[in-house]
């Protein structure tokens, strides 16, 4: 958001923040959310780079298309463990996963 717009909103009595502020997340919770989103985005990016559909990806993971969709959306039912294991199964290296985690930090 532009500084001028933020100043106008704050002068009008609005509070400006991010989703973590709105949800009253602790710094640890916010970091966890960012990490999960980064891994989910990387899964989608990796799938797209290979030209695979969610169904094709699901077959490679011995899962379902709906589960892949949930993984890519960082659904609350998806664990970090599942995201990391899936990325590795799809050909991402440990270094690739590490870079994603480092960028999310």
Describe this structure in words.
The protein is mainly alpha-helical. The protein has a single domain (26-104), classed as 434 Repressor (Amino-terminal Domain) (Orthogonal Bundle), CATH 1.10.260.40. Helix content is 70%, strand content 0%. It is built from 7 helices and no strands. It has helices at 3-11, 19-22, 27-50, 54-61, 65-72, 80-89, 94-104. Helix 3 (27-50) crosses helix 7 (94-104). The two termini are 22 Å apart.
Quantity of strands, as a count: 0
Helical coverage, percent range: over 70%
Structural class: mainly alpha
Total individual domains? 1
Average pLDDT level: 92
Tell me the fraction of residues in β-strands, as a range: under 5%
Would you identify the CATH H-level superfamily? Answer: lambda repressor-like DNA-binding domains
Extract low-pLDDT stretches. Answer: none
Number of helices: 7
What is the H/E string? HHHHHHH
Give the C-alpha Rg. Answer: 17 Å
First-residue to last-residue Cα separation: 22 Å
Cα shape: elongated
Helix and strand arrangement:
Elements: H1 3-11, H2 19-22, H3 27-50, H4 54-61, H5 65-72, H6 80-89, H7 94-104
Helix pairs in contact: 3-6, 3-7, 4-5
Keywords:
105 residues; elongated; 434 Repressor (Amino-terminal Domain)
Question: Could you give a quick summary of the protein structure above?
Answer:
With 105 residues, the protein is an all-alpha fold. It has helices at 3-11, 19-22, 27-50, 54-61, 65-72, 80-89, 94-104. It has one domain (26-104): lambda repressor-like DNA-binding domains (434 Repressor (Amino-terminal Domain)).
């Amino acid at each position: 958001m532009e500084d001028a717009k933020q100043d106008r909103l704050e002068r009008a009595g609005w509070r400006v923040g991010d989703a973590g502020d709105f949800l009253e997340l602790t710094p640890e919770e916010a970091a966890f959310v960012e990490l999960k989103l980064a891994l989910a985005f990387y899964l989608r990016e990796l799938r797209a780079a290979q030209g695979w559909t969610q169904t094709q990806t699901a077959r490679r993971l011995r899962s379902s298309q709906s589960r892949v969709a949930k993984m890519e959306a960082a659904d609350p039912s998806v664990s970090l463990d599942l995201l990391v294991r899936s990325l590795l199964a799809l050909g991402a290296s440990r270094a690739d996963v590490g870079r994603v985690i480092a960028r999310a930090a």
